[in-house]
Amino acid sequence: MANAPITVYDLNMNKVAYLENAYTVGYEMPLNALWTASFSLPINDPKNAECLPLRYVEIFDGGQRIDLFRIIPNVMSRDGDRITYNCEHVLATLLDDLLFQFHTVGNLGFYTTDVINYVLTKQSVTRWQRGDIQFAHQFEYTWENESLLGALVSIPKPFTAEFLWTWNTTTFPWKLNLVQPSQAVEAYIRYGANMQGIEKTIDPTSICTRIYPMGYGEGVNQLLISDVNGGLPYLDADTISTYGIVAKTFVDRRFTSAETLKAQGQAILTKLKIPRVSYTVKASELFAITKDPLDRFNTGSLVRVIDQEIGEDFIIRVVNKRRSDVLGSPGDVELEIANQGLDVTNEIADLQTRQRIGEVYAQGATNIDSHDFADNCDQTHPATLRFWIPEEAVRINKLMLSYESQPFRAYERSIASAPATTSGASSITTTGASSITTTGASSITTTGASSITTTGASSITTTGASSSTTTSSTSVIGDTLPVVSYEGSLVNPGTMSTVPDHNHGITSGTQLMVLGGGSVTFSASGSHSHNVGVHNHLFESESHFHGMNHTHDMPHYHSMPHTHEMPHYHSMPHTHDMPHTHSIPAHTHGIEYGIFEGVTPTSITVRVDGNVVPGLGVAEESVDIIPYLAKDGEGRVTRGTWHTIQITPNSLGRIVSSVVSQIFVQSRGGGDY
């Protein structure tokens, strides 16, 4: 029936029933929260069979569509023979899906629209689509095991401006909007017109003028806003001069970005910096009669409240609208209007909910690790250590470097040699004694005239064996004739060599005088030989005088086997210039194994990510290297990358070093192996 207060749909949005017998139909419409509704049916109504859990119901109020809900627990009561059904808005369908495990989205270049799209794409069944989004922030969001609805309602939490969730469920898929609420007055409540009663409450217990936002982690590793708030971990309200300092902590471990955490803290401080003033107004909604929009109250709209008797005239936003029975009391409505959307009770409840959610969020733990290394090095080859800082390092507490210099160390002597060839000039200077022995025949040939003049007495005595025999023929021709003799040479012992034909210089036929008288005729004897045995000549010559000026002109040859042994010393500085080539074949030198130490450096230079650490000696302990590590654009040590330490000595040497790190690592990422 078209005029039934409730229509039932199945899960595919097909109409299955009109509940024309429904009664006690009521609803509640809180601002930016999940709406609820309820209704009852007679226990014997056959339409109860269609009111199955999680089916959808469309509720109307005086012919005006309120919205679409789904059935949750029902209560059967014998009192009055009825069944009461409780419902929640279809926005609750986003509770059915989950952002399983860890999700981080947002930050620079990723706007509010993109974040909402990301969440809505995680639906198992696409019931909701993004509608009108009037914000374009770039906050970073982190969720872990969070429902899609919980993730969505957290998106505008860091906003300092007012926001309003709206939706359109008249078409499927449904549209979700995030808009700025209107600043125009949309309704009036006047005493004596549509106001039945008003109750004002001022609650200073919820006031907060200083807030300490705290995010991910624990202890010294908990995320604070100091780095993005001038070093201060808190935010102050501009109402401190009025209300004094009232400090509170805001803890939400879902936040891993300091900027987003600060924005969230500022948004909460804006709400709590003044006492909450709320009004509960009982009024009559006359829209069904007047059809004037000023007589209709909507959650999130501004209304003007006028009560001249108590001196109240103010404009305030409707934060909740309740109707208990749209059929039995069609005009009665209860409005909650306030300067804040949440009272302290709801805020505390919200924080408790966050803490329960935070229990399923992976936090992490503090880890202490060391990186040790030892290596030889010199001026051009520094000792180098590279270590990794993971993306999961939420905080870096310490990075300390310790090192000492030691003598250069080798573990063997000698190396293998390959073929080598060398050519070029060579020079050498040699000094010192020199000796030489020569053996063998020596011969010399002499030609030319030989003359000798002998005067005076001559005496000679010869005894002993002779190894050579000389024969001669002598002729005396007075005082004027020359005496010519011929001397042979003994070739073999006992034999004279053959003498060629000769005449001793005398013409054949010449008469020669002989001793004792008489003469003989000289004739050439011709070629002949003498066979002479080895013999001795013993003769004595009287003192006599040869008065013969004469000349011997005898080409002759001496053949004398002999030996020269001459120890001698040459002092001759000299140089040998000898172009030469050395060719050394492949060969191997044996290796002696052991530990052999060399020199030790006397000064050290340390570089961390290319930055020189000043004032260090050859041995240091617990040097803080965090100031020298590479930083990102926000001044934080870069994660997910290598960092390098180089230790350079002024000579050969050995460096023994250790880097100790203390970091807080979140329990996210990776697998289970």
TrEMBL record:
Residues 419-474 are annotated as: Disordered. Coiled coil: none annotated. InterPro entries: Phage_tail_spike_N, Tail_dom. Residues 103-349 form the Tail spike domain. Pfam families: Prophage_tail (PF06605). This is Phage minor structural protein.
